Structure formats: C-alpha cells, structure tokens
Amino acid sequence: MMDEKSERLQLQPVSEPATPRREADNDANTDNDRRPQGTGEAEETDYDPHDHRELENPTNNMETLVHLLKCSLGTGILAMPQAFARAGLITGILGTVLGGILVTHCLKVLLRSQYEACRARRVPQLAYPQAAAAALSHGPGFLRRLSKPAPALVDAFLVLYQLGICCVYIVFISDNLKKVVDPIRELPVEVYTGALLLPLVAFNLIPSLKLLAPFSALANVLIFLGLGITLYFLLSGERSPEPLDLWGSAATFPLFFGTILFALTAVGVVIAVENNMKTPKAFLKPCGVLNTGMLIIVVLYVAIGAVGYTYCVSKCSDSITLDLPKGPLAASVMIMFAVAIFISYGLHCYVPVEVVWKGYLLPRLQQNGSQHIRLWEYGLRVVLCLLTFVLAVSVPRLGLFISLFGALCLSALGICFPALMEACQWYPKRASVERSLMFLKDAFLFVVGLIGLVAGTYTALVSIVRSFGPATTD
Q1: Which distant-in-sequence residues (6+ apart) come within 8 Å of 326 by Cβ?
Q2: DSSP conformation class of 357
Q3: How many CB atoms lie within 10 A of CB 366?
Q4: Which residues are bridge partners to 59 per DSSP?
Q5: pLDDT tens digit sequence for 80-102
Q6: Chain centroid to CA 468: how far?
Q7: Which terminus of the chain, N or C, has fewer Cβ atoms within 10 Å?
Q8: What is the pLDDT of residue 32?
C-alpha cells in the first residue's frame, strides 16, 4: 500500500557515511542557512522542493485524504470511550477538539519546517531526522550543537513509538481473543499472548512491503466493517444507567492527553502521504487535505468517544469492543479487529526494522566485512518482535500502554520537535514583531509538549504500577 511504502521512506534515518565532498557540500549549505535573511535569499527562494520531486506513483488529493483517514482508524479510536471516562463528557469533547486543533497546527509547523529545510539544502525531500538536524543548525549556539545528535534522537523516538504500537497491538489481540473464547472456556490472557508469539515472529520475517500489501488491503476492509458494526451496537444497545461524569478529574487528565495524542498524532503517516502527493501544495491549504482530514477525524473521534462513554460510562474497557454484548455478531467484530490488527503488527514492526537495520546495523556489518548479512537481518526482526512480546506479557495494560506511548513519544515528535524546528528557522531573520510572536508561540507549544510528556508519562507509569496492586484494577 502507498502509505506504508512512503512511511518507510520518511522514517529512513541518516547514518550513511558521507564522502569528504558530501561533507564539504553539507558544511557549505549549513553556512548558507545560517546567514541573516537577505544574504543569498534570492538564491534560496528560486528553489521550490515541490517542483523537483520525482515520484513513481503519486497520489491525487482524494487518494491522499483516503489514506489519511484510513490510517487514523484503529486502536486509537477504539480507546476513545475510555479516554472520555477519564476526562468526563464535556471535558472529553472540548479536549478532543482543542487537541485536534493543537495537533493539526503542529503537523503544519512540522511540514513547513521540512519544506524550508529542503529549500535551504536545495533538495526535493528530507526525512524527519534530516529536517530536524537542518532546522537546528539555524538556531542559537546551544541548539546548533544538538543538530548532530538530533537525527539519532528523532530516530530513537520513532523506533520507540513504533515498537510501542506493536506492544499495544499484542495486548489488543490477546484481550479480544480472550473475550471471544471466555464463554466457552476461561483462560488467563497470558495464554493468548503466548499463542501469538510464533505467528507474529513468522509474519515479521516477511522481508518486503509488497508481499504485505494484500494483507493490508484485507485489514482495511475488516477495520471499516468492524467499526460500522461497533457503532451500530453503541447506538442501538442498552446504555448504562450510571450517571455521567461531565468534567472528570485532574488526576486522570494526563492519561486522557496521552490517549488523544496517540489517537490523533499520526506523524509518520502525515509526512508520508504529503511526500507522495502529486500536488503537495494542496495539502496545507485552508480547505486542503490536512484540514479536511483532521476535521473528519476529530468529528469521528468525538462521536465514538461520546457515544461509547454514554454506553458504558465508568465501566469503559481499554477497547470499546470489549464492552459489546455477548453474541455471535459481537464476537465476529472482535475477531475482525484481532485479525486486522495482527496484520497491522507486521506493517508497524517493519518501520523500526528499517530504521535500525539500514541506518545503524547494516553499515557497521558492511564496514566489518560480515558474511552473514541476511542472517543478521532476520535476527534483528526476531529480536524486535521478542522485545515487544516480552513487554506486552509483562505489562498487559492496553489503555495505559496507549497513554504512555502517546505522552512519551508523540509529545516529543508531534509538538516539541516541530516547535523547536520552526523557532530555529526563524532565528536568523531580522528582529520584528512577527519574529517575536513566532518565538512566543513556539515556546508555548514546546512547554505544552514538555508538560504533556512529563505529566503523561509519569501518570501512565504510576498507573501501570498501581494496576498490579491488590486494591486497584485497570
């Protein structure tokens, strides 16, 4: 599928050894980027990266919108009712809308910063890690020193986030399989998790995204069908008589924040689909693809969150599928989602494999003259799969996993880094009111992201620890 292919391109790290000529060119570009505005500005403005992109199969605006919507419907939207249970109905609605506005703006900031980095380097495209390094090289001295480790730091967050998604998927599949089989025979959830190990390892050994494409198409059909049936149950089923909590609690709001970020901030997908557009200038227009897509996504998330919360109130499970009434139709929905998410696991685990393998491990093996390249690659795939499996078995808490990785990784990737990149790119420009306002806005975004990262991560970790206590259940 296009989105997975282009996401791979976006996530590829920059660790290819540079030749002396390339290093000299990069240094020259960096020096040009650090000049005050007006020095060499005419040379930069005549280069438009969008006009120099060469794509084999670019997507039109409607295809791009479909890809954006499809990639936003998964475990995140199924966790929205529980997020509303933590925030309260009114706070949940307002928080989701404001979160959508914040995320959309930060995605725009990131894409514009990438565009400016490409224009300064006079290249058609740059991956996120490259763009972060290029942007930081414009900033004040203490941030310029971060430009060299920035690609590795961005890669680390990207890999951690993708592995976190894989952990979420393992727990999701196990929970749904247990709910389906429990009426026949109750078994611990660890049994289902253990049964997934060998199939997951085998599926993760598929080396090509092209071979995964037919499975991805099947997953899309199952997810859309499952969401339709789930919405039918929520609208027609018997609702909980428990009174609604309208405002929620400050203690659990960081968990809501982390879930919202996990659900809404599809950083890799947004960059990937924009990079593969036939008309990329249409992506950020006021009525363009991003605004239209995020508006639809936010409306869907608010609807599922609010309807799901009024259906089960405080008893909302980590995934709304676990709250559906017993019966063959509800069981079929859980099986649909379990199969679809199992397929998606292979696609998401492919990303960290690509980053670690092509960016870090393969160059070292080639430098050392290793004769077992293919064996090392398969070994990496098995190790990463086992890592997610061990973590999922150790902490089988779906909702808290979602909040943890949303707060930890997406606060950094979706808010903090874009704010830093934009501020650094404005740093060389002449002092003006617009420049000062931009710095204030970016400082505000960075602080919001940092608070969300620290508070959300801390609250999720504390909740995970408490969930294993005898008096507390998640």
Answers
A1: 183
A2: I
A3: 11
A4: 277
A5: 999 999 999 999 999 999 999 99
A6: 27
A7: C
A8: 43
Position 39, amino acid: T
Look-up: residue for tokens 């959309």? Answer: 104
At residue 101, the pLDDT reads 96
Structure tokens at 57: 């199969």
What is the three-class DSSP state of 59? strand
Per-residue confidence (pLDDT) for residue 21, from 0 to 100: 37
Could you tell me if 177 and 308 are in contact, meaning their C-beta atoms sit under 8 angstroms apart?
Answer: no
Q: And the tokens for 470?
A: 């005898």
Is residue 341 within 8 Å of residue 172, measured between CB atoms? yes
What are the backbone angles phi and psi of residue 277, rounded to the nearest 5°? -85, 145
Give me the residues paired with residue 277 across strands. Answer: 59
**Using the 8-state DSSP alphabet, how is residue 286 labeled?**
T
Give pTM, 2 decimals: 0.83
- The C-alpha atoms of residue 83 and residue 256 are separated, in whole angstroms, by 5
Give the sign of the dihedral formed by CA 409, CA 453, CA 109, CA 302: positive
Please report the pLDDT score of residue 349 as a whole number: 86
Distance, in Å, from the CA atom of 319 to the CA atom of 421, rounded to the nearest integer, reads: 35
Integer Cα distance of 420 and 364 in angstroms: 31
d(CA 265, CA 270): 9
Length, in residues, of the chain:
474
* Residue 466 scores a pLDDT above 50: yes
| pLDDT band, residue 45 (cuts 50/70/90) | low
The percent helix, strand, coil of the chain (3-state, each to 5) is 75, 0, 25
Residue 340, φ and ψ in degrees, nearest 5: -65, -40
**60: number of Cβ within 10 Å:** 13
Q: For residue 211, give Cα distances in angstroms to 214, 216, 343, 385.
A: 7, 10, 12, 19
User: What's at 228, amino acid-wise?
Assistant: G
**Residue 383, phi-psi category: left (phi > 0), alpha (psi -120 to 50), beta (remainder):** alpha
Helix H, strand E, coil C: the string for 335-351 is HHHHHHHHHHHHHHHHH
- The helix/strand/coil state of 360 is helix
